Amino acid sequence: MLIAMAIGVAAVIILTALGDGARRYIASEFSSLGTNLVLVFPGYSKTSGLGSLAMVNATPRDLTLNDAQALSRNSNIRRIAPMNIGSVNASFGGRSREVPVIGTSHEFLKLRHWQLAQGSFLPVTDLDRATPVCVIGSKIQNELFTAQSPLGQWLRLGERRFRVIGVLATEGRSIGIDVQDIIIIPVASAQQLFNTPSLFRILVEAKNRFAIKPVKQFIIEQLKQRHQGKRDVTVITQDAVLATFDRILSTLTYAVGGIAAISLAVAGILIMNVMLVAVSQRKTEIGLLKALGAPQTQIIHLILFEAMMLSALGAVLGLILGELGCYALRQFFPELPAYAPLWALLASMAVSLLAGLVFSLLPARQAARLDPVLALTGK
Amino acid sequence: MPSLKPLMIELSNIHRDFKVGDQSVHALDNINLSIHPGEYISIMGPSGSGKSTLLNLIGLLDSASKGTYLLNQQDVTVLHEREKAAIRSQTIGFVFQAFHLIPRLTAAENIELPLILAGIAPEQRQPRVQKAISDTGLSDRADHTPDQLSGGQRQRVAIARATIMQPKILLADEPTGNLDQKSGQDVIAILEQLNQQGISLIIVTHDAHIGLRAKRQIQMLDGRIQSDSHLNSNPGTSPGTSPPRQDQANASSHT
Fold this sequence. Notes:
The complex is a heterodimer.
Chain A: H1 2-32, E1 37-42, H2 65-71, E2 77-92, E3 95-104, H3 108-112, E4 116-119, E5 133-136, H4 138-145, E6 154-157, E7 160-168, E8 183-186, H5 187-194, E9 201-206, H6 212-226, E10 233-237, H7 238-281, H8 283-291, H9 296-332, H10 342-359, H11 361-368, H12 372-376
Parallel strand pairs in A: 3-8, 5-7
Antiparallel strand pairs in A: 1-9, 1-10, 2-3, 2-6, 2-9, 4-7, 5-8, 6-7
Chain B: E1 9-20, E2 23-35, E3 40-44, H1 51-58, E4 66-71, E5 74-75, H2 81-91, E6 92-95, H3 107-117, H4 122-135, H5 151-163, E7 169-173, H6 181-196, E8 200-204, H7 208-211, E9 216-221, E10 224-228
Parallel strand pairs in B: 3-8, 3-9, 6-7, 7-8
Antiparallel strand pairs in B: 1-2, 1-4, 4-5, 9-10
């Protein structure tokens, strides 16, 4: 029964640690994307939520470079970078492979909080200048350039050639983009390469937290005007996305914790059974206590106390087990901060003590009601 | 002549019925009994005569179906369970045939048990336990558990436990039933010694040798008192204890 209680508590701890860890992982992923970020998507769906996030829409009206340029004239905006994506065959010196390509501007690096390992990022130019330069990720460097320095070399992308001016550092994360397996070129060059004038996204960094809302409003208004009064863009603030994820994962964590708590209820029933058996096995002892003059309330207290001691012991054991389990999880999955939240620790201990109390009430009353004469003769 | 001492135990028209199936069994049938403080009484009779039931009733472990029980002039039949428990704790000591020691506890801890239940502080418990241990000759066995003790030693532990709260009444139900001859005699000697110190002693036994040692002997049969040696002397003499003469105590209780 002790083990059942310990497992129940440990289960609650580990599961909530997982849930909470997932939540924090997502949160930190998002915050590493850059704070105060506002994302502009082509296409407007009436339902808000994650449905529009993952899609690259074929839209009635494209986002264009002119749109991006128009937006940059606002004092609340610190940085703005248009974004274009595609995939090309990159080749150098006889080696080639398919590589994802991002077309953007020089502000992109700082916006994303990425770092350079070598060289420099895209030059500061007008958005519509298609300079044939590129910045490559470390995997590209290793696979296409192997030992030699890529800087200054001419890399073939599709049918065009781009001069490598920088290499990205391996740190820096992004959702859906592997920073090591990417090539970045100016957005105008990308438009030529992919043969499309439309943009995938526009990334906007507000100058501070309080500027986020006005920036969002400004973007919506501006683009509405430019698109003949039609609202056909989606503007998402990073914290809205974050809040949604946070909500989902919190709910998940509570639900999972609740399920684990059911196992505590099971442990409680086990306690009741154990105490019932104990009472029936120790009948003579209880009869003796009554003969010695212990009133019924004292007998009830004795049983309850014993049950609560057992549950407390089980809970502490479960706490240790749970923390060990979380530690093991952290070793195997270092990116997932599997720390059990304090509320889960306290709740599981409280519930186990409560279960011990509640489920031993019946056995305790039974013990107190025993007829001392019958109990002593073992009937 | 000794003057009238107040009665300690007064049973009037006591009946105790048990339901066996749909029949009522009269374990005790119209018992009338009076006991003065300091008496040494044995209750004898064949099995089924109700002697243990009578002892349990006197010791407040059981309640009568009918009749009244005055303990130190207090009507205990109307008391709550809690009040009865308090009386058992402070006034009554039990010694059982099967000893009923708690196997996980040492001899000393078993003796200490009533003090703990009564809520007495640890500092006060220790000296009392030590005295009880030495009084019953258990000093070298004090931290042994019951399974390391002989039958006679176990019963001595039980007696020490029964008397640690300094009760006025000591009830022993076949105290030598599980003991050999020698240990049995030792145990009876201790009980009689306690009686000489003023504790009322009531022993239920089927062993006539032990029963006849008592100053007052009661015979039971089929739930009634067949004879009471207190009543076998001259009728009409004044009530009161004066050992070794048995004096008439109360209205007759046979037939």
